[in-house]
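Mods, move this if it's the wrong board.
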Amino acid sequence: MTIELQGLTPQVIIVGSGPVGLALAIELGMRSVPCLLIEKNDRTGVAPRAKLTNVRTREHLRRWGIAKQLADAAPLGVDYPSHIVFVTRLGGPLITRIENAFSCEPVQDHRYSEHAQWIPQYKLEAALLDHVATMPCVQVAMAHELVGYEQDEDQVSVQIRDVASGTVQTISAAFLIGADGARSTVRDLAGIKMEGTFGLSYNYNTIFEAPGIAEAHSHGPGIHYWQLNGEVPSTIGPMDVGDRWYFIPMGLPAGERFSDEEMPDILRRATGLDLPFRILSSDSWIASQLLADRYRDGRAFLIGDACHLHPPFGGYGMNMGVGDSVDLGWKLAAVLQGWGDPSLLDSYETERRPVHEQVLKETAINHSTAANKLFREGVEDPSPEGDRVRKEVAEFIRQTKPREFYSLNIVLGYSYSGSPIIVAEQGDPTEWVPAKDYNPSARAGSLAPHRWLGDGSSLYDRFGMCFTMLVLDPQSRPEADRVAAEAGALGVPLGVIEIADPEVRKLYEAPLALIRPDQHVAWRGSEAPADLLKRVTGHSGTDGESWSPGNRSRQ
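Not the wrong board. Structure tokens:
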């Protein structure tokens, strides 16, 4: 069966309908860019690849208008405590705990507009897919797979096969996006290679149900229970209603597998609890540290796991892929709508690669203290010597693990310093180096500092889907209006907002700040450079005559 485009002429074809592909479809759909999203699998099953929707991803959901829908979908409740509990076994003694990991507590914090949320990926995908279904310019074709593509200067011709019938059809678009995960077909067809370290560790993931498990231990609610024993070092924790939990034995020999008949006994040994474990799914996974040697092949781009893979320690993976979608999405729309120069798309890799590289380093450090690495001989002994060992392990955890669970310095602190499409001040850093703690900064390239305003609203809610000139001093309003008038003549979507809040003015350290569609600061100051709009829309390499109020089309 062929795809009936229903009057849609797609400008972008997205391969992969996980959170990353859906996020890109939303970014494009909200800007009225026609796109087709194809997915070869049915996206059903109980095994999520991610369980954390972090602060920054939730802020994107707020911008898309669906943060509340995801909060309402939380199976354990949006206020379920996100504690990390370190024990010898679930049924054994406590070693230590880390509370409110990942900033999941639903309280108002000036640093962000949305708290994080512990929710299985399939719930997030459902919320995103429901939102995509409301967008007339986005079409989703399940059970269809990419089998090839050809491109020229004007378009990419994509060969798509119906999984059931085997029928192949060709659909053309301006761009092809690979959001198709670790085994990306787009990446393979483009001849792009993954570089780095494969096989840092071999692990297992089991989803099970065990009635009464939450009441069978004495450690209280949490999202991770790290079981630090020499027999089955692992993490375990709740995932959904119905006593549905996940279980991840770590540091296994390469190739080791467990049958569903064996797994209940392994769970009993790991937890020290004799419960009626029912296995729902199991699979093995390999922790690796890999990055694509390039993210683009002409009109084809890679986002998410298709271009970066790292150990799942810190909740970065899926969330970082959503960040890719946001960065690439507004730039694709800008180019397709004529106000962004095609060279704007080169800044996607320029901006995102340093973020990926830093997260790969961070997750490798976190992986070095996985559950199997935290075990110490004697940690389970019911003796004074056992007490001493547990105290030593607890102190080591307190010194090493907070960076994994309190990571706003990465999640919100990342910056596009050195990007060619920001206008920095003299002395600004040319590359992003994470600070130990998150300190909001309005330097060009940084995420715009957030604050809750006096009326209870979020500063971010005042920003639009386009560029926003933020006016923090009324005397600078004429300069903001001048830039807005120039933007209007050039066809660049730009709004102006004025905020009379001394605390916000203090945060931004300037009377004006130009905020990009992705909520990053493009420029701040008092008098905009003459070429400001040219630079932030990718036209800095043009000759000055090719992009003007009288000549805006450069596709």
